[in-house]
Design goal:
The complex is a heterodimer of chains A (773) and B (242). Chain A is α+β, with helices and mostly antiparallel strands and 773 residues long. Chain A has five domains: 52 residues; 98 residues, Penicillin-binding protein 1b domain (Penicillin-binding protein 1b fold); 202 residues, Penicillin binding protein transpeptidase fold (Orthogonal Bundle), CATH 1.10.3810; 295 residues, Beta-lactamase (3-Layer(aba) Sandwich); 55 residues, no CATH class. Helices cover 39% and strands 17% of the residues of chain A. By secondary structure, chain B is mostly helical. Helices cover 51% and strands 0% of the residues of chain B. Chain B is built from nine helices and no strands. The longest helix of chain B is centred in the first third of the chain and has 18 residues. The termini of chain B are far apart. Classes of the chains: A alpha+beta (773), B mainly alpha (242). Chains A and B meet through helix 2, strand 6, strand 7, strand 9 and helix 7 of A and helix 1, helix 2, helix 3, helix 4 and helix 5 of B. Chain B: InterPro entries: TPR-like_helical_dom_sf. Chain B: Keywords: Signal.
Chain lengths: 773, 242
């Protein structure tokens, strides 16, 4: 519409310069031209107002990690705490001056938190003192004030849900923008901004002068208003017509809106960088993206850098081209000193500072696509795509960046250590980390390659789970205390059965041997296939399937005997779901990644509440946990204590599918559960069993994450009894080799008589033993 | 170019004058960073419950309407402990016992600790003020208090959210699970209320009064779910345990 009209009006005007007889015509033509032109102006005016008065931008939903809670007695190491503060962009200062500052003095840390609106309440911005002792928080108080019961940091922003055009921004209001930043922008981009009416003949003249005298295109004459119009309404086309339309729209914009509104729009619109597919718009997001800080906390050198980047966000990208960016920043600082915006001393000091952008690979500058994928999937069940990508929703998740980094490091480190083995370089990985006590997902790995945003193996690699299925077989048995206890004698020997499908099934042990008469629990501890399969057939395959479903498994598996040894396939996430029921005393919790959703304005929108359902008798779970702890102490998982202290009670199970195509480990402490899967995408064989592969990653992770030892309270229906290690008969604590085992009350063996001298002598015996050793 | 602009400007000036929006009435989308100070209106309320222990009682006494029946006990407060009445759940027709908080102080040996932290965590549990059963950590007590204020103010979602926060800090504290069950019951989710009460029971061994309260909650939940027989059974257990 713009193009056909403007040349016409121009041609008419040329004609009006003709001789007098034409004057009447000229006036008429001029009038027609003016009317046409006025029509165009009206049209432009409508365009300008329409877009500027409505919702100017759509804002993608923002996804936040869990806020770090602080309270006395919390298990948190100082170094993890400082890592989190770094990721949140806290500045190290000698004495905290304002929000976003931290000062470290040995084990005592002062910080000035920023405050944040959460679902249930607002966290105030306050000066907090945190004291550490070992890996615990030993003290928490307000600086210069009293004790604090609990405080939280702001949550780390871990990503957003972007629409198709993938523009991202953090909207800011002008009163949040530091005055110096406004001055800097105006000084550099449009000195006469507060005087002109949208276009500035003065700055055009200056630009012409500068460009002419330097012989190069150094300075543009566009005002901030024109730049905004260009970005906001127009294409990138370079033509005189567009330039004219731009100028006219700039004038119209200035006519309707005041300088502050235009400036605010500029601060939010300007393009400042590209992050993959995501376009970084506005100073609010740029401040987050480059410095991990809110705009209000920017210092002079940071402001100068951002303002300098307006001219060429790609060319002056401080991460890609730090030298160029530094030169540009310093040029801006000189300019500011020249114009008297800052003093020469201030400019000099700012010039001496490093660029200070967060480095790639740091917690602040990492992406966690696997977890975000989980969040998106859960959100899509409740929201329309447009709500997620346009409404600026705030999504609060349970993601724990500290755990995620530890999980990633464990995986990378272990695969590197194992890389000598042939075939390990082809192995891919999936990992799920949850807190079984809350049912929350804390970390997720979808690939061995950090930050890989493709196939999410934690959720989508559905693979045979091997021996991970065995706890379900034993749980089914232990739920029948009149028939089975942990010390029921079992026969581990070869057998064959004819399945419903007519095929003969002859399971084999991993070492292709039979182990004879064993206790029931030893079948699980050593992952014997023969005795486990036998037990599964005794209790009934359909019943084991029912147990699996009660644990949280949602697939329909055919009731073939091979299922008893893990022919069925699950994703790491599904395994985590099942195992968290085992870890959480028999209470099933649907795993959650999202806690709550707030609107862009901070209003509560939706909560994803904690839900539990008791699925098993706590007594049976207690016995199973006991056996699973023995897996770690004396069974297939025992290598874990080569690296971890024996005081750390852990329970778990290895899993290996045929030809080591899948290497699994699933296990837990009191407050931490992790499932690791290693295998090839093409399902080829690997050199890794559950114990030599996945367990190694798991162990390394537990060593870093340092969970609480597993400590399920003994249920009322459980008693402890001493048994003879060989016969399974009741024994006494005084007998050599006697082991203590838990039983459901009434199923324990009759207590044996004491061996040798009576109980009080025990201590004497210990004393003697002490002498001998 | 500028020449062309002069008529343009005049024309637009004339025309726009008629259609212009009065300044100041332009809606601005407000979704700035959440940390901005201007959205912290209710900071004060929270701050008071979170602040210095000594002044906590007064601040809370002011914040809570008199008729809500919620009184907050403060560990280490000046005048020793005051009872924390948890009977603010309006659903049940039966009187809810306030035992879960007012405990006899005879069991000192079997108190499940809410965190495995070393003795430093007990620094807030000061001498004499708190019944022995209630080894609530500072943070848990603060969050329970916040939750009860929210519940009293009718903000059940906020209360549940605060309690889940407490549950993350002290997942094995049956008091938290008890309160969570109570809020769920007030929200009409009797099934979840029963589940939380049952979970609470698994951590409440050696705390008979609390067990009784949990059984009582189970009875109410079952009643609400139409399970009269189950409710009666639970009510029996509530008595037996006392």
């Amino acid at each position: 519409m713009t193009r056909p009209k403007s040349p016409r009006s121009r041609s008419k005007r040329r004609k009006t310069r003709g001789s007098r007889p034409w004057l009447g015509w000229a006036v008429k033509l001029g009038l027609v031209g003016l009317v046409v032109f006025a029509g165009f102006a009206v049209y432009l005016d409508a365009v300008v107002q329409e877009k500027f008065s409505g919702k100017r931008w759509t804002v993608p939903a923002k996804v936040y990690a869990r806020p770090l809670e602080l309270f006395v007695g919390e298990k948190l190491s100082k170094s993890d705490f400082l890592k989190e503060l770094d990721a949140l962009g806290y500045r190290r200062e000698n004495s905290v001056s304002g929000p976003g500052a931290v000062s470290v003095n040995g084990n005592s840390i002062n910080l000035y938190s920023r405050g944040f609106q959460f679902y249930e309440s607002a966290e105030p911005s306050q000066k907090v003192n945190v004291r550490f002792s070992g890996d615990y928080v030993a003290g928490l108080s307000q600086v210069g004030g009293g004790k604090l019961s609990v405080a939280r940091l702001e949550p780390l922003l871990i990503g957003g849900l972007y629409p198709a055009h993938q523009e991202d921004r953090v909207l800011v209001k002008l009163d949040q923008v530091p005055p110096t930043l406004i001055q800097t922008l105006v000084a550099v981009e449009d000195r006469d901004f507060f005087e002109h009416h949208g276009v500035s003949p003065k700055s055009i003249a200056r630009a012409v002068w500068v460009n002419a005298s330097s012989g190069a295109l150094r300075q543009g004459g566009s005002t901030l208003t024109q730049q905004l119009v260009k970005n906001f309404y127009l294409t990138n086309e370079r033509s005189l017509t567009r330039k004219a339309t731009e100028a006219m729209m700039a004038l119209l914009l200035e006519l309707h809106y005041d300088k502050n509104e235009i400036l605010e729009a500029y601060f939010n619109e300007v393009f400042l960088g590209q992050d993959g597919n995501r376009a970084i718009h506005g100073f609010g997001l740029a401040s987050q993206y480059f410095f991990s800080q809110p705009i209000a906390e920017l210092k002079l050198d940071q402001m100068a850098l951002l303002v300098g980047m307006v001219k060429g966000p790609t060319y002056y990208n401080p991460r890609r081209h730090p030298e160029r960016a530094t030169v540009r920043r310093n040029l801006i600082l000189d300019m500011l000193a020249e114009q008297g915006v800052v003093s020469v001393e201030e400019a000099t000091a700012a010039k001496a500072r490093p660029l200070g952008v967060t480095s790639k690979g740091s917690m602040a500058n990492s992406s966690f696509p696997a977890f975000l994928d989980l969040v998106k999937r859960q959100l899509r069940e409740d929201y329309k795509e447009a709500d997620l990508t346009e409404e600026g929703l705030r999504i609060f998740t349970s993601f724990d960046p500290i755990m995620q980094i530890k999980a990633e490091e464990s995986l990378t480190g272990t695969l590197k250590r194992l890389s000598g083995r042939k075939g390990v370089d082809q192995v891919e990985a999936g990992m799920v980390v949850t807190n079984p006590e809350t049912g929350e997902v804390q970390a997720l790995i979808g690939s061995r390659q950090r930050g890989y945003a493709g196939f999410n193996r934690a959720l989508d690699a559905v693979r045979p789970i091997g021996s991970l299925v065995k706890p379900a077989v034993y749980l089914t048995a232990l739920e029948r205390p009149s028939e089975y206890t942990l010390t029921t004698m079992m026969e581990d020997k070869a057998f064959s059965v004819k399945g419903q499908d007519g095929q003969v099934w002859s399971p084999q042990n991993y070492d292709r041997k039979s182990h004879g008469r064993i206790y029931l629990y030893q079948g699980l501890v050593n992952s014997y296939n023969l005795s486990t399969a036998k037990l599964g057939l005794q209790v009934g395959v359909p019943n084991v399937l029912k147990t699996l479903q009660r644990l949280g498994m949602q697939r329909e598996w055919p009731a073939y005997p091979s299922m008893l040894l893990g022919a069925g396939s699950l994703s790491p996430m599904e395994v985590a779901d099942m195992y968290s029921t085992l870890a959480n005393g028999g209470f099933n919790t649907p795993l959650r990644g999202i806690r709550s959703v707030l609107t862009a304005e901070g209003e509560p929108l939706k909560r994803y509440p904690y839900k539990i359902q008791q699925r098993f008798d706590p007594g049976a779970i207690y016995l199973l946990q006991n056996a699973m702890q023995r897996v770690m102490r004396e069974g297939t998982g025992r290598s874990v204590y080569n690296q971890l202290p024996r005081s750390l009670n852990l329970a778990g199970k290895t899993g290996t599918s045929n030809d080591s195509r899948d290497s699994w480990f699933a296990g837990f402490g009191q407050d931490l559960l992790a499932v690791v899967w290693l295998g090839r995408d093409d399902n080829g064989p690997t050199p890794l069993t559950g114990a030599t592969g996945a367990l190694q990653v798991w162990t390394s992770f537990m060593a870093k994450a340092d969970p609480l030892p597993l400590d399920m309270p003994q249920p009322d229906n459980v008693v402890q009894a001493w048994v003879d290690p060989k016969t399974g008969q009741g024994s006494d604590s005084s007998c050599p080799g006697a082991v203590q085992m838990p039983y459901i009350r009434g199923s324990e063996p009759v207590a044996g008589s004491a061996c040798g001298i009576q109980a009080p002598v025990d201590s004497v015996m210990d004393w003697v033993r002490g002498w001998i050793e | 170019m500028t020449k062309w602009l002069i008529p343009a400007f005049t024309a637009s000036l004339v025309l726009a004058g008629c259609s212009s929006v009065p300044r100041g009435s332009i809606p601005v989308v407000d979704s700035g960073t959440s940390a901005s100070a201007n959205r912290m209106d209710n900071v004060k309320v929270y701050g008071s419950s979170n602040g210095q222990q000594g002044s906590q009682a007064q601040a809370q006494a002011q914040a809570i309407p008199e008729d809500s029946g919620v009184v907050v006990m403060v560990p280490g407060g000046v005048g020793g402990s005051m009872p924390l009445d948890t009977s603010s759940a309006p659903i049940s027709s039966q009187p809810i016992q306030s035992e879960p908080i007012q405990m006899n102080s005879t069991q000192g040996d079997n108190t499940p600790s809410t965190s495995s932290a070393p003795s430093i965590s007990s620094s807030t549990q000061s001498a004499g003020g708190l019944a022995a059963d209630e080894q609530l950590d500072g943070p848990v007590l603060a969050l329970l208090t916040t939750a009860q204020q929210q519940q009293a103010g009718g903000d059940l979602n906020g209360a549940a959210s605060s309690l889940e926060r407490a549950q993350r800090i002290a997942p094995r504290e049956p008091q938290v699970l008890y309160n969570l069950a109570q809020v769920r019951l007030a929200q009409g989710d009797a099934a979840q209320a029963e589940q939380f009460a049952r979970r609470g029971l698994s951590y409440a061994s050696g705390r008979p009064a609390l067990q009784a309260s949990l059984w009582d909650l189970i009875a109410q939940s079952r009643q609400m779910q139409g399970d009269a027989a189950g409710a009666a059974q639970a009510r029996e257990r509530a008595k037996v345990n006392l």
